């Protein structure tokens, strides 16, 4: 008999709502918790959605032919030749990931750390998450050797892992697994007969000088499902639209049938007006390409500046190569944090940052990390402005760090971190002014 | 270890897609399979959605404060005093129903017949549907005595039913359970400690002269969750928006926490621009009220005309009191159907109607009926016109039955049914011209 699933609120969305309550109560808050992108809708997309407001039919469960063709083209330009019949659209890539777990069945391998919802979704789907650590500096992909060992052990213990979820580029670490690791992942998945679900929602947010993120679909095309959406590159989280690309061949055909069946029973279709605007976005006309490039430059500039403040106090940080996320490790400050603040773990650190300083971050435990570590995730995507005018300025100015609101946020972050890193004695002598 | 869930495509959406393929192939089809409402978006709602196209933030998981307040007002005007904090919005009432099953946990009692997705969703949620027949002429609500017996037996057999789903007014039968039955349902649910999930998406589509459908929330307010949406009354299926009202008191608070947790992990939020338009709709300004009244009159007129054609050939039909659905029973024609067409059950009948006549209906088995019966469901909601101009005429003309496209569809239905009911000998003598 099914027990009520052990589900807790998504930590990112919960943190957002908590900070919003504090902001409304008049507190000064610095929101680094959720990865919601605080940028305006591109006017061309706004116009497309407005023009599609009369669309009220369900249309095909998998999404309109136009949207599927556009998404196939988008992937084709990124080295994944795609048949529109193998594209399935949903109200966000989040529900698609959940439905894929139901469609594949069995238990689910997730990297540690990884996005807050993979393991929670696996549990909601009745599966047990099998947690496998990532390699240093290569977040988002389980260490292939550890993956082999974990899946073999899980199967020996009666579990039934059938798919592995990966994130390229990675959330929470902002790093990108190497092609070599992906090749080894592909070999392991083939040997273990695992489906690879590759969440590539950040694939357009790789920093300048970096190559585009590699995809397991290149190394294991017969068994890799790729998902993406418009939430991150085009700041359209509130529009709820995502797409999945299933592998060509018999597995893909079987998965498509099961995925659309699950979709038909859980959500019917993605919102029709949004589908029309999304089709336009996936076609990547020049203004869309320009917006994504501007947003990427902004993320890179602000993330690197924020990273500097963490590095300045001695937190460890793998260089961030993509996304708007930092995943600093306060291990080198463990003694100071304990002495000055009584903080012994990431949850304590996040709580201190929120309650003493009004700074919202997420503890590494939200991403599946063990309790004792001192890693936190900080997202810079809410620092770009409180109004559309500010956000537009952030997108278009050549030096966004000089915009007063961005500068103020980054200065505040630096001051908070500085205060945090001082010893108790220092802090008593000089009351913090943060 | 979780097996892949036994999931099949939603029969309504599958039938829609199959008919659409035939239509594109140039065949003449009469689409009575799905309950999609073939009417245009009310211009005022179109404008609201267009004006909200710039909304791209997630906002609260449970939905915007404006939408929750508007939905609470809507329910308040229907005899359910509602706290906006107990309203949870989702991308359709379908995902809300699924998430409620996960939030309540345990197994799920469903009436037979009932909407195609309840039992399928229960299986996706890892639950076993416990099927309980309805009372004659009172579709949508399990016979309370049979409910007691079934739940007791299921528990004795190790199952764990914790909620019962009901539909008021009912899909597929177009009937409405009586207040007496609901009172008995409430008593049984209290004695058995079951949550009642009351799908009231058709509550605004009760025909003239009928009273509004009663709700179990009146008889068991402490344990009833009510769901609805804008799909049926305002023809906004493709917009994907639904709302749930949780009961006041400790159960409701617990359910709200679990439901929003599930929602945060599966879909995050309902599409933000749609939420804004939906808030306006739930406020029920005069043009919204006028649209619903016009649509209701149209459904009633066309459903009654179609019912006449089924009755004319001797099919049994409980008088339809709401919705756009008919649920005729061809049992009186069993011998003719077998002799003339080799048809022995509802699936055979639906197949014959689709393949020989191009008429799409759903067999009763799609609604959980046993295999041998001859009941089918026919929806009239796709007969109102192929273009927006035709659909607007259907909404506004005093006698929609005289509109050529509606008349042609109904005439064709009558001719098909007439041909179907004739004996093999008759049919050989006089080739059908349908």
Automatic annotation (TrEMBL), chains A, B:
Q: Which cofactor does it need?
A: pyridoxal 5'-phosphate
* Keywords associated with the record: Aminotransferase, Pyridoxal phosphate, Transferase
Molecular-function GO terms, alphabetical: transaminase activity
Q: Which residues form the Aminotransferase class I/classII large domain?
A: 28-380
Question: What domain of life does the native source organism fall in?
Answer: Bacteria
Return the Pfam families for the record. Aminotran_1_2 (PF00155)
Say which family it is in: Belongs to the class-I pyridoxal-phosphate-dependent aminotransferase family.
This one is known as Pyridoxal phosphate-dependent aminotransferase
Q: Native species of this protein? A: Streptacidiphilus alkalitolerans
Q: Tell me the classification of the organism that encodes this protein.
A: Bacteria, Bacillati, Actinomycetota, Actinomycetes, Kitasatosporales
């Amino acid at each position: 008999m099914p027990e009520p699933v052990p589900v807790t609120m998504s930590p990112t969305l919960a943190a957002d709502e908590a900070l919003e309550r504090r902001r409304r109560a008049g507190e000064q808050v610095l929101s680094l918790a959720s990865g919601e992108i605080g940028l305006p809708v591109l006017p061309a997309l706004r116009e497309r959605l407005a023009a599609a407001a009369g669309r009220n039919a369900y249309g095909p469960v998998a999404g309109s032919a136009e949207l599927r063709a556009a998404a196939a083209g988008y992937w084709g330009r990124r080295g994944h030749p795609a048949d529109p019949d193998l594209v399935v659209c949903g109200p966000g890539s989040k529900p698609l990931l959940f439905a894929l777990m139901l469609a594949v069945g069995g238990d689910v391998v997730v990297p540690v750390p990884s996005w807050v919802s993979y393991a929670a979704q696996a549990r909601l789907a009745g599966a047990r998450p099998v947690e496998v650590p990532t390699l240093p500096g290569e977040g988002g992909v389980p260490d292939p050797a550890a993956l082999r060992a974990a899946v073999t052990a899980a199967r020996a213990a009666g579990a039934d892992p059938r798919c592995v979820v990966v994130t390229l580029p990675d959330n929470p670490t902002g790093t990108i697994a190497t092609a070599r690791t992906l090749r080894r992942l592909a070999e392991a998945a083939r040997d273990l007969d695992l489906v690879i679900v590759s969440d590539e929602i950040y694939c357009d947010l790789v920093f300048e000088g970096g190559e585009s993120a590699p995809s397991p679909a290149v190394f294991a095309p017969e068994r890799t499902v790729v998902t993406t959406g418009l939430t991150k590159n085009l700041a359209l989280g509130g529009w709820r639209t995502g797409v999945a690309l299933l592998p060509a061949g018999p597995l893909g055909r079987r998965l498509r049938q099961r995925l659309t069946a699950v979709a038909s029973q859980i959500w019917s279709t993605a919102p029709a007006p949004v589908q029309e605007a999304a089709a336009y976005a996936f076609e990547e006309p020049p203004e869309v390409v320009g917006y994504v490039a501007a947003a990427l430059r902004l993320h890179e500039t602000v993330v690197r500046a924020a990273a500097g403040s963490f590095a300045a106090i001695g937190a460890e940080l793998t260089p961030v190569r993509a996304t708007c996320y930092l995943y600093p490790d306060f291990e080198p400050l463990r003694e100071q944090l304990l002495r000055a603040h009584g903080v012994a773990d990431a949850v304590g650190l996040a709580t201190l940052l929120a309650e003493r300083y009004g700074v919202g971050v997420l503890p590494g435990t939200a991403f599946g990390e063990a309790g004792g570590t001192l890693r936190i995730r900080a997202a810079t995507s809410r620092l770009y402005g409180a109004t559309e005018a500010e956000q537009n300025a952030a997108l278009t100015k050549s030096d966004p760090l000089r915009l007063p609101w961005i500068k103020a946020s980054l200065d505040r972050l630096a001051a908070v971190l500085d205060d945090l890193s001082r010893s108790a004695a220092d802090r008593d002598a000089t009351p913090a002014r943060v």
